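**Sequence, structure tokens**
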Amino acid sequence: MSCERPDAAPLFATARDIGIGGMFIESAEQPPFGTAVVVVGRLPGASHDLRLPGVVRWSKSNGFGVQFGLLGAQETHAILTVLK
């Protein structure tokens, strides 16, 4: 998956934990708190890449947490399918 951010190259990282409100992204680089991001990737069962808008809310040495912004019906359904 990738994590797009304004005025910087995308981060290529791994999603490790996902919920309806956000996700943990494992990455060697951590964007600053408050950075707007768009997480781009294909969740299991999805037919195409999803674009999940969010904001960096915390970080630690191996990654960072993203709180999702407004999600559409397809994105919400894909996340709920993963959580089942």
